[in-house]
Design brief:
Elements: H1 15-23, E1 29-33, H2 39-47, E2 51-56, H3 59-67, E3 72-74, E4 89-95, H4 104-114, E5 115-123, H5 128-137, H6 161-171, E6 174-181, E7 187-189, H7 195-200, E8 203-209
Parallel strand pairs: 1-2, 1-4, 2-3, 4-5
Antiparallel strand pairs: 5-8, 6-7, 6-8
Length: 211
């Protein structure tokens, strides 16, 4: 495991978003899907001079983005990505949102169609703390990445890092980079399906290209 310290580190933005920002070239065209309050887009605009756009399902999130002068529309990843033309963006980002979509496979296909690169992060359901909570308590686990109780969570398709790698293989997607983030905010890269990454990683983070 190798520790990664993103450039321009700030306590006001999530660690995984800092890692994602470091993967994006300055001046790039970026679409952030499920952009929330616009933290990543704001950071990229001020530190990478990107041409950023966003989609957010909640009206509160859209309002927060607009107040910051960000170009964000209300939309749903499951239904609205088909309206974007092929390769309209250099990077399409889906951070901590894949598990909340109804059709993850179709959403991934749209990401690599719309963008030259797709950056995807998600909570890893095989993380050791989750395994321990299930074993010790017999109840659905809660972590910082999966903070809501099972009866209130928006997440409907949990997966593991190994699950995601296998899905990319089955779809013929090219994995340009595969990483995991620990609870402490450290990152590591791995090969193949990542046995230890699947155990140690609280989150998975991938850079993809289409077949």
């Amino acid at each position: 495991m190798t520790e990664f310290q993103p450039r321009g580190r700030s306590d006001t933005i999530r660690v995984d978003l800092l890692v994602i920002s470091d993967l994006i070239e300055s001046g790039a065209r970026v679409l952030d899907i499920g952009c929330g309050d616009g933290a990543l887009l704001h950071y990229l605009a001020h530190n990478k001079d990107v041409d950023g756009r966003g989609i957010e399902i909640s009206q509160a999130g859209v309002n927060a983005c607009v107040r910051q002068g960000l170009s964000v529309v209300q939309g749903d990843a499951d239904t609205d990505l088909r309206d974007y033309p092929d390769k309209a963006f250099d990077y399409v980002v889906l951070s901590q949102t894949l598990q909340a979509t109804h059709s993850p496979r179709e959403v991934l296909a749209e990401l690599v169609r719309i963008g030259r690169h797709a950056i995807v992060s998600f909570p890893n359901f095989a993380y050791w703390r989750i395994r321990w909570q299930l074993l010790a308590s017999g109840r659905m686990p809660e972590t910082e990445a999966l903070a809501a109780p099972w009866y209130e969570t928006p997440n409907i398709h949990f997966c593991t890092i190994r699950d995601f790698v296998i899905l990319c293989r089955d779809m013929g997607l090219r994995i340009e980079q595969r990483s995991f983030l620990t609870h402490e905010g450290k990152t590591g890269r791995f090969r193949s399906t990542g046995l230890w990454a699947n155990f140690l990683g609280e989150q998975g983070l991938f850079v993809l290209r289409g077949p």
